Amino acid sequence: MTAPPTDRIFVALDMTDVAGARAMAGKVAGMVGGVKLGLEFFVAQGPAGIRAVVDGLDLPLFLDLKLHDIPNTVAGAVRSAAPLAPSFLTVHAAGGPAMLRAAADAAREEAERLGLPRMRILAVTVLTSLGEEDMEATGQQGPVAAQVERLARMARDAGVDGIVCSPAEVAALRAALGPDFILMVPGIRPAWAAANDQKRIMTPAQAVAAGADHLVIGRPITADADPGAAARRIAEELTP
Ligand SMILES: O=C(O)c1cc(=O)[nH]c(=O)n1[C@@H]1O[C@H](COP(=O)(O)O)[C@@H](O)[C@H]1O
């Protein structure tokens, strides 16, 4: 049985205050499959803030810290994040195979040690805010799709559970990497929402049809006058 469409949606709570994040989570609960808390919130509120938002919410947590450092430091950060029991935690694929392996090993070992469900490590490939014109500036070998696939294969071979990529790369990656590698996909814009700073975008239905497992959606829901209605509308658009 396929998951209901709401289960696919992780709403990005990109804000700095606990009350605001909790209120937003409350408005969309039942219409989304989980919440994503990332750097903006974590730098402002830390682990205690994360707990304050998710405690009692009964929704999976995607902790988007985009860790990128030497393997030993990243492994330590993964262990430090484990007590928050995230379902997903991000690292940057550009950290390289040893860093990715260290993150995957630390995630498995620490969850086991604490008796918690496994947290899945996701490697961020090429940010969805980057376009072809940014590849040379950042010293990466384009085109974007080729660089994303290179990083994705490296991440899979290093033992991580999945990647974060733009919708534009999903179909090729699904074909190349098989059905079990998790594709977490931001850069999602319903036809009725503004693109903002995202460059490589698709609608929710297009991204799922291409093979996305989960959709990360922020402003189309959180900046809407009625976030609950916006989330419901997206879930409806995903209903076959
Ligand atoms: O790791 C991510 O979640 C991520 C990776 C990426 O390449 N692009 C990207 O937009 N994101 C995140 O996805 C969310 C997208 O938010 P909206 O653009 O408001 O829908 C933000 O929280 C970003 O941090």
TrEMBL record:
It comes from the Bacteria. Keywords: Decarboxylase, Lyase, Pyrimidine biosynthesis. Its EC number is 4.1.1.23. Substrate binds at residues 14, 36, 64-73, 128, 189, 198, 218-219. Homodimer. This is Orotidine 5'-phosphate decarboxylase. One of its GO terms (biological process) is 'de novo' pyrimidine nucleobase biosynthetic process. One of its GO terms (molecular function) is orotidine-5'-phosphate decarboxylase activity. CDD domains: OMP_decarboxylase_like (cd04725). InterPro entries: Aldolase_TIM, OMPdecase, OMPdecase_AS, OMPdecase_bac, OMPdeCOase_dom, RibuloseP-bd_barrel. It catalyses: orotidine 5'-phosphate + H(+) = UMP + CO2. Signal peptide: none annotated. Residues 8-234 form the Orotidine 5'-phosphate decarboxylase domain. GO terms for cellular component: cytosol.
